[in-house]
Amino acid sequence: MDVTVYGPLRGATGAKTVTLQCDPDTVAEVVDAFVQAYPRARPQLFTEDGALRPSVRVTVDGGRASFDDSCPAGATVSLFPAIQTGRRRIPRATAPGEEGDNQQYKNH
After folding, report:
1. pLDDT of residue 54
2. According to its UniProt record, what is one Pfam family this protein matches (predicted)?
């Protein structure tokens, strides 16, 4: 399963597109597998309470998708992270070993 990421999520993955070894049924399962593979991306996608950030957008093969939507085998999923609005700062995702804003998440 290929996942293409945009914006600050690239700091967590180190690449624009990553391949996950998973066979998901839903978009939610893809995002769960992505966060397990790249835990530094979690603050960009989810609130501290574990809810998906309202401004996060997910597409499957170019069409907007919700977490409950099915995800066909071989689909390309794209993740567009939350955009900072100036109200509350979201930690910047950093690549493994990189010093950065989200060091408090490095053991999570």
Report:
1. 87
2. ThiS
Instruction: Show Cβ contacts of residue 27 under 8 Å, excluding neighbours closer than 6 positions.
Output: 58, 60, 65, 66, 67, 68, 69, 70, 71, 77
**Domain, as residue range, for 63:** 2-84
* CATH number of the domain encompassing residue 56: 3.10.20.30
Q: How many domains does the chain have?
A: 1
Q: Is residue 104 part of a domain?
A: no
Would residue 108 count as lying in a domain? no
pLDDT tens digits along 25-70: 999 999 999 999 999 999 999 999 999 888 899 999 999 999 999 9
For residue 51, give the DSSP letter. P
- According to DSSP, residue 67 is labeled T
- Classify burial at 51, counting beta carbons within 10 Å of its beta carbon; exposed 0-12, middle 13-18, buried 19 or more: exposed
Report if residue 89 sits inside a domain. Answer: no
Residue 93 phi, psi dihedral angles, 5° rounding: -70, 135
